[in-house]
Amino acid sequence: MSERLLSVIVQDEPRVLTRISGLFARRNFNIKSLSVGRTEQRGVSRMTIVVEGDDRVVDQARQQLEKLVDVIRVIDHREEKYVDRELVLVKVRIEGPDQRVEIRHIAEDFRARIVDVGRRALVFEVTGDEGKITAFIEQMRPFGILETMRTGRIALTRGSNAEIQSQRYAPGPSQTLEPILPPSPSSKESV
Amino acid sequence: MNGADALLQSLIDHGLTTIFGYPGGAVIPLYDALTARPEIRHVLTRHEQGAAHAAEGWAKATGKVGVCLATSGPGATNLVTGLADAMLDSVPLLAITGNVARHLLGTDAFQEADITGITLPVTKHNYLVRRADDLPRILAEAVSVASGGRPGPVLIDIPKDVQLEAFTGSFCPPRPRPSVGTVSEEYIEQAKALLRGARRPVLVVGGGAQEASFEITRLARAWNLPTITTLMGLGIFPAADPLWLGMPGMHGSVAANRSISESDLLIGVGMRFDDRVTGRISGFAPKAQIIHVDIDASELGKLVRTHLGLRGEASDVAARLAEGAEPQNLHPWWEKIREWKGRQVAHAAWGAGQAIGFLCGQLAENDILATDVGQHQMLAAQLARFQRPRRWLTSGGLGTMGFGLPAALGAALAAPDCRTVAIVGDGGFQMTMQELATLKRYDIPVKLAILNNSYLGMVRQWQEMFNDRRYSEVYIGESNPDFGILAKAYGIPSWRATDASELAGTVPSWLSCPGPALLEVVVPNEHAVFPMVPQGAALSEMIEDDPAAVQA
Ligand SMILES: Cc1ncc(C[n+]2csc(CCOP(=O)(O)OP(=O)(O)O)c2C)c(N)n1
């Protein structure tokens, strides 16, 4: 399934996260990851949402998001160049001193930092794009991963423009709009 | 001045001076403040659901925001059905609820319900007010959200101590209606090119075009377009116009459904391709290019393949499409349509169809007709002939039984110069019949007709047609009350008709009686509504007439 990256700038109101996750659940949109944080502006938060689904579904999700009163702006990163990063914490089991050296070598290749040193475990912090993170986790797997936590992707548009207008859907015959619902076998409906 | 006062002042500032409500512990400060506000008319219903539907009736009849008020907990949850109804039918509704004091929020306090949580999916937006000083700003925003763009319900939840808190803020003037921006000329030209090229066009108008009746009529006439109005759009285009083909969908007219199925261009304005309208979506207008005009961008391309999606005001787009029209030669198309228009369901000499046809025939152009949900609703939608918008009040999207009586009550108060008639089923009537007391108390002149077929008729029809007549829990005749005695108990005059001549004899006095009046129309029990598109079938597969009647 394809996925798309949306940044959603929202009013930092109570329940705003519930509104957004509820909207996705209610309308059967799939969230792969969602991260939220405050922004440089007071009262404004920013979310990066990775939505799974084909273009029609994600376009619909975006338009539904734009209707929410607390949503200030939706940025579709398909239309805007962006940088994205993910951060992960990985706790790896250590059996002996040899392993310690080997693991450190791998970590250096990934520019992973050790953030906690235990007698039997090390905790690494790695930042990067999704591919790098996944590759690091795969490299560590043989040693025995005890726990991981990923932040989910976060993204910003490139360039100096901080006031990116959300691109509204531009109606036109060039882009016939395909419905989001696949024709489903007739199911029992209600009176 | 406290929060409660500030709220009432803000309501007055916004011209919202009729409130349908029901008191309780968590709104006592608001009710107390009401006593000093003669400008505000509070209408005490007998159930909060009644208050919500009455506010909807008010809003549907006027296009303005309807207001309802309830206490915390059970009062608030009783509003939920009305909110969901308003959400699906895009009705501008403002619901105000009380809640427990701020320090008790989240503690399962007495009569606490997380109503902002509960109503999240059935409101356009909702607010939990945390400071009295925020009230004017929140109210101004709420009214703007409820009425702006695609209208819908908004809820404001006010903890009791916020109602009592000293108000030191300032008031906000009403906000101007937010503009949606206009559709660029390029797209209007593209739409016109499609219109010029079409040989079998149809115009389908939904409830979203309520404010565009004039422009829609011009558009249809300018291009000589066969025009169909959905259940929610009835009255936006005058039924007396020969261009009108009726209603589409599950119980739509032969002409509407056949012409959609054969059309090569379908222009949908302010409608949303609901499954009750489209039938099986893959079989909907299979030969047509679709132009869809809606104020809500998320509707464009949501359900059907759309060749030109125009986000804008219905009135603006329709007016511009009408300008410089180049009507085409549609003779062969109109020939076909005339033949379809000739195919009408034959109603028995006495029965639900005949009775509702007769009642609808008595309506004047300015009368308002409200219905409940079921067979009587579909029959009224098929048989009534509306010439103006905002004269037809029905629950479309949610199909809420119990809507009819309270909605009529709200409309009658909103439009005292119009006569308001309600047709309800014997089943749905009993869901909100407590509002007879409200009719009586305020002497609201709703003319209420109960179509008594002793069944939950619409469900019975489905069980007859699709479940081999295995009637399951749909007979209510044995325990229906005596509706005449019931009316009398409330002090409301009543009439009863059991055949066509009795109906003709009683209707004049029922309709001309000054206050509220009830008419029970007893009809043969097992009748079905046709035409019908069975569930899962395409519009073209409609059953045009009652198979039983056709065989006989
Ligand atoms: C609140 C609610 N409950 C159940 C239904 C399902 N339902 C749809 S029509 C109908 C029958 C309505 O019967 P009645 O009010 O007697 O009207 P009739 O169809 O006989 O005209 C029912 C039960 C509904 N629409 N709304």
Your description of this structure?
The complex is a heterodimer of chains A (191) and B (552). Chain A folds into 2 domains: 88 residues, ACT domain (Alpha-Beta Plaits); 68 residues, 2-Layer Sandwich (Alpha-Beta Plaits). Chain A starts with a strand and ends in a 34-residue tail after the last strand. Chain A has 4 helices and 9 strands; from the N terminus they run E-H-E-E-H-E-E-H-E-E-H-E-E. In chain A, strands 5, 6, 7, 8 and 9 form a 5-stranded antiparallel sheet that branches. Chain A has a 4-stranded antiparallel sheet with strand order 2-3-1-4, covered by helices on one side. Chain B has 3 domains: 162 residues, Thiamin diphosphate (ThDP)-binding fold, Pyr/PP domains (Rossmann fold, 3-Layer(aba) Sandwich); 157 residues, Rossmann fold (3-Layer(aba) Sandwich); 184 residues, Rossmann fold, CATH 3.40.50.970. Chain B is built from 23 helices and 18 strands. The mean pLDDT of chain B is 97. With 552 residues, chain B is of the alpha/beta class. The N and C termini of chain B lie far apart (74 Å). Chains A and B meet through helix 1 and helix 2 of A and strand 12 and helix 20 of B. Bound molecules: thiamine diphosphate (TPP). Thiamine diphosphate (TPP) binds next to helix 16, helix 18 and helix 20 of chain B.
Task: Summarize the SSE layout with pairings.
The complex is a heterodimer of chains A (191) and B (552).
Chain A: E1 3-11, H1 16-26, E2 30-38, E3 44-52, H2 55-67, E4 71-76, E5 82-93, H3 97-109, E6 113-117, E7 121-128, H4 130-140, E8 145-150, E9 154-157
Antiparallel strand pairs in A: 1-3, 1-4, 2-3, 5-7, 5-8, 5-9, 6-7
Chain B: H1 3-13, E1 18-21, H2 28-34, E2 41-44, H3 48-62, E3 66-70, H4 74-77, H5 80-88, E4 93-99, H6 115-118, E5 125-128, H7 135-147, E6 153-159, H8 160-164, H9 185-197, E7 201-205, H10 213-223, E8 227-229, E9 244-246, H11 254-262, E10 265-269, H12 275-278, E11 289-294, E12 308-311, H13 314-322, H14 331-342, H15 352-361, E13 368-371, H16 375-383, E14 392-393, H17 404-414, E15 420-425, H18 426-429, H19 436-442, E16 446-452, H20 457-466, H21 483-489, E17 494-497, H22 500-512, E18 517-522, H23 547-551
Parallel strand pairs in B: 1-2, 1-3, 3-4, 4-6, 5-6, 7-8, 7-10, 8-9, 10-11, 11-12, 13-14, 13-15, 15-16, 16-18, 17-18
Helix pairs in contact in B: 1-2, 1-7, 3-5, 3-17, 10-13, 11-14, 15-16, 15-22
Bound molecules: thiamine diphosphate (TPP).
Thiamine diphosphate is lined by residues 372-376, 399-402, 425-428, 451, 453, 455-459 of chain B.
